[in-house]
Amino acid sequence: SPPTREITDFTPKLEKQTAKIIANLRIENENHNKYLYIFQIRVIN
Prior knowledge:
Layout: H1 4-44
């Protein structure tokens, strides 16, 4: 098993990457919802 220091160094990097992924997913989801909303308006009108 790797030394504790390596694990402690690795954790913040992983947290940052995870935070970035979550942020990107939220942005994609918002853009997707906007697109669906615009599409619905166009179809209805």
